[in-house]
Amino acid sequence: MDFETIKARDDRYVMHTYARFPVDIDHGENATLWSADGKEYIDFTSGIGVDSVGCADPRWVAAVAAQAAKVGHMSNLFYTQPCGKLAERLCRRAGMSAAFFCNSGAESNEAIIKLARKWSYDKYGKGRATILTLKGSFHGRTIATLSATGQDVFHDYFFPFNEGFRYAEPTLDGVSQVAGHDVCAVLVELIQGESGVWPLEESFVQGLAELCAKRDWLLLVDEVQTGIGRTGTLFCYQQYGISPDAVSFAKGIAGGLPLGGILANEKCRDVLGPGTHATTFGGNPVCCAAALATLDILDEEMMGEIADKGDYLRRAIEAMDLPALGKTRGLGLMIGIEVAPGGSNREIARRLMDNGLLVLTAGPAIRLLPPLTITKDEMDKGLAILKQTLS
Questions:
Q1: What is the mean pLDDT of the chain?
Q2: Whole-prediction pTM value?
Q3: Which has the closest alpha carbon to 24: 252, 9, 382, 380?
Q4: What are phi and psi of 290, to 5 degrees?
Q5: Where are the domains of the chain?
């Protein structure tokens, strides 16, 4: 089927909720993709951080196929082995006590919000349910997670938004200015991805952890984008020297299938009991089998390469001294690139796409989230396209 036919069908039957680029992706191998008509692309997006082990890894494919041949789904009223095995592995590697599985990043953050409010209700009663988030944050597209998001650009159309959130500047003074006796938790992204890939200062994060302990607020970390190896450790908080009470995750956990969840420490492990929270597809055995295979692929050796790959890309991009781009920032393979004043990140992304390199935008920046398994050859091909296109 030619591209125009593919596009026409999509335009006719799919809601126009995405500003799609004129590219169809038919198949791929690791970080190299091909359209239906055979054009090759180097993938620096991984489906916005989802295809963490690239496309068509044979170990991942085999694990998904084997579980699908046994049972595709089972109600959470019964036990399945992949769910418990995945929970154990994540808890042991993250230093947490219990897991809850769901389907997406927004749903993961819904769960962490409910956990914080019920924890506070159980201990303090009503009137202590406000959650502080940071300006520039993004926590999802449901009504509650949009309400938690600290960007005005998302606060439109869908009124009324939920109460119970206040937005702070990412400083200790900023948090103190909006704090009050009604606060139960603080929810942060350690790298604010959607607003432009902005890492938080380590001193601020550690000071915030101390403030939470002093005020008896829960410290919640949104690792939907930063988690599962993206920044060079299983979770980004492991590089900040803190121990959050709960952490949300999604995107790359199942290597391409929909899976998310939260991990809670011992204090919070039993907050959500039967009847207080649930989801039909959470802990789906095929998705959990995919996640187990993903964690097998992202072993200690592979995890140790992620920071080096990120440093390689950032050094190479800055050494090009391209007039359209500026400095880079980020951790591991979560990279933001400044766009020169007057430039358009979407136009840059379109030009790169035309020449065979897929990148993302975030806020005013270019965002790179390549598969964690990307090879040096694939990185070099992508860098060559970047240089050729923007020199």
A1: 97
A2: 0.97
A3: 9
A4: -65, -40
A5: 3-52+299-390, 60-297
- 176 contacts 319 by C-beta, under 8 angstroms: no
pLDDT of residue 1: 86
Tokens of 92: 């042991």
**To 10 degrees, what angle do helices 58-68 and 285-297 make?**
160
Please state, in angstroms and rounded to a whole number, the distance separating the CA atoms of residues 363 and 194: 6
- Measured at the CA of 313, the angle between CA 333 and CA 343, to 5 degrees, comes to 95
pLDDT per residue over 60-105, tens digit each? 999 999 999 999 999 999 999 999 999 999 999 999 999 999 999 9
Contact 332, 46 (CB under 8 A): no
Q: Which residues pair with 329 in a beta bridge?
A: 336
Does residue 222 sit in helix, strand or coil?
A: strand
Task: Identify the CA nearest to 377 among candidates 287, 327, 309.
Answer: 309
Cis check: omega of the bond before 258, within 30 degrees of 0: no
Best CA proximity match to 1, nearest among 33, 32, 24: 24
CA pair distance 19, 11, nearest whole angstrom:
11
Q: What is the tens place of the pLDDT at every residue in 193-223? A: 999 999 999 999 999 999 999 999 999 999 9
Residue 216 CB neighbours (<10 A): 12
Alpha carbon distance 146, 138 (integer Å): 8
**What tokens were used for 169?**
């500047």
The CATH code belonging to domain 60-297 is 3.40.640.10
Fold of 3-52+299-390: Aspartate Aminotransferase, domain 1 (3.90.1150)
